[in-house]
Amino acid sequence: MDTAAHELGTSRTLWELLERRAALTPDRPVFLQDDRRLTFGELRAGAERVAAGLYGMGVRPGTVVAWQLPTRIETALLSFALARLGAVQSPVIPFYRDREVGFALRESRAEFFAVPGTWRGHDHTEMARRLGAKGIFEAYDALPDGDPARLPAPPAEGASVRWIYWTSGTTSAPKGVLHTDRSLIAGGSCLAHALRLTPDDVGSMAFPYAHIAGPDYTVMLLLYGFPAVLFEQFALPEALAGYRRHRVTVAGGSTAFYSMFLAEQRRRPGEKVVPTLRLLAGGGAPKPPEMYHAVVREMGVQLAHGYGMTEVPMITMGDPDDIAENLATTEGRPPAGMEIRIVDGEVRLRGEAVCRGYLDPAQTAEAFDEDGFLRTGDLGYVTGGGHLVLTGRRKDVIIRKGENISAREIEDLLHRHPAVGDVAVIGLPDAERGERVCAVVEAAVPPPRDGELTLEAVTAYLRAEGLSVHKLPEQLEVVDALPRGETLRKILKYKLRERFSDTDR
Question: What burial letters (b/e) apply to 53-90, b meaning 16+ CB within 10 Å?
C-alpha cells in the first residue's frame, strides 16, 4: 500500500483530505472533461470561492442543501464547497423526476436546491418550482462566488452526518441513507487500496456524480493523486473518443458497462477499443463468471469486480493480482476494517464504511441487528481464503413447490449460452406451484439462429450444464432490451415481474 495514500486516508473530513492532497501535488490534474482540466490545487481554491458564495447566500454548517446535477467539474466544485462549509448534502440522481425528487426534498427538509436548468430536454428549474423547493439556484456552468477570507473555519470532525443519499426506490419509496465524511473516506479507501492504482493511472467516471460511487471514486483520486475523465453523458461508441484522447487506463462502473465495452470490442476484432486500457473495475450488480473470462480473453485487460451498495459504498473488491478463479467467481475480499457475518445465509456488515442508518428511525431499527450489523438482504458465503461469494438476493430466491431456487445460479449458466446477451431470472406467481421460474433473455449480437432461444432449447442446454430438473425455467421471454436503471444500469426485475406476471397461467 502506498504510504502517502495510507496517511491521507486518516483524514477526518473530506475537506481535510482535499487540503492535504492539494498541498502534496497542487499542479497535478484531478478532473478532465472534454478540453478542460482541473488540478488538485484549483479544486481546493475554486471550492473555497464557491463556499464563500454559498455562505453569502445563507448556507451554514448543518444547512441541508440538495443538488441534482450531472457529472461535471462544476458539480465537484459545488460538492467540495459544501464539504468546506460542513453543510449536509443531499445528492439526487439527475434522471429522477417529480416523484423521487419531491420525496427527497420533503424528507431531507432541504433549505436550498441546486439544479442544472434545462438539461437533456428537461426543465429542472421549472420542476423544482412545481415541487415547492426552497432556495432554488442553477449550478450548471456558473456557481456562487465570494471571498474565502469571510469563511468560518472548516469542520474539524468527520463523524457527523453530512450526507443523505437515496436508494433507488424501485419497489417502494426511496430511503434516505445517512453518511459521514469518515464513512465515505473509509469506503473510498477500500476501493483505492484494493485496485493497486498509481499516480500514472487515468480513471474515468461514466456514472452520475450524485451516485454513492461519486465520492467513492473521488476519494480514490485524492488518496493516490491521479485524474479521472468525467462524462456528462455516457454512451458507446460516442464516449470512446474521450477515453482515447485522455489515455484512460482504468474504466468500468458496473457489469452493464463491462458488457458495453465488450460489445464494442467484438465490433472491432483485432483492434483494442481503448489502447491504453489495462483494467475494468466496478460493482453495483452481479457479475457472471463468464463475463470475467470474456473480458480478459477478448479485450486483453484485467477485470476486478467488487461489492457495494448505497448503505456501504465499498464492502469488498477484487485484487487485480489475484488468481483468475477468485476474480471470476467471487466479489473479492473485505478491507481490514470491514466485518462480514453470515447469518442464515444472509450477508451482514459492520465497520466504519457502513452508513449511520436512515432518515426514518424505524427503518434504521429494522436494518441493524442487535450486534450493530447491517442486514444487507444479500445471500452469500465467505471462502476459506476470505473471499466473499454472493449467491443472490433474499427476494431473488424463487420458492417453487416448497423448494428454494437461486435465480443467480440459473443466470450464471445462461450467460454462457452463445445466443444470450443478458438475462434475468424471476419468480412469477403460479396457482399450482406457488412460483414458477421465468427466464427473461436479451438476445446476443449477432442475432441467434432460429430455434436457439426457445424454451425447449434453453431447458435442454441447462440440463446439459447439470442444472437440477426442479430448477428448470417453465417460461421463457425474449425481449429487445432488459429494463435498466439510469445510474449503474442495473436490471429492474420488478418491471419484469409486473410485465410477465399472470396468476391464471
Answer: bbbeeebeeebbbbbbbbbbbbbbbbbbbbbbbbbbbb
DSSP 273-338: SSTT--EEEE-SS---HHHHHHIIIII--EEEEEEEETTEEEEEE--TTS-HHHHHHS--B--TTE
> Comparing C-alpha atoms, which of 53, 102, 108 is closest to residue 78?
53
The Cα–Cα gap between 498 and 496 comes to 5
pTM: 0.84
Give, rounded to a whole angstrom, the gap between the first and last alpha carbons of the chain. 57
Task: Spell out the domains of the chain, with CATH numbers in brackets.
Answer: 3-182 (3.40.50.980), 401-500 (3.30.300.30)
Can you give the pLDDT at residue 503? 47
Helices (H) and strands (E) counted in the chain, each on its own, are: 16, 25
Give the chain's length: 505
Per-residue confidence (pLDDT) for residue 171, from 0 to 100: 46
Radius of gyration of the chain (CA): 23
Cα separations in angstroms, 316 against 201, 212, 326? 21, 15, 13
Q: Where are the beta strands (DSSP E) in 124-276?
A: 136-138, 161-166, 176-180, 203-205, 228-230, 250-253
Segment-wise mean pLDDT, segments of 10 residues, the chain, 505 residues: 82 97 98 97 98 98 98 98 98 90 96 98 97 98 97 96 83 83 93 90 95 93 97 92 97 87 91 96 84 94 94 94 96 93 95 96 95 94 95 78 79 90 88 84 83 90 86 92 77 86 61
pLDDT of amino acid 488: 64
Q: Which amino acid is at 498?
A: E
Cell numbers 452526518: residue: 161
230 beta partners: 205
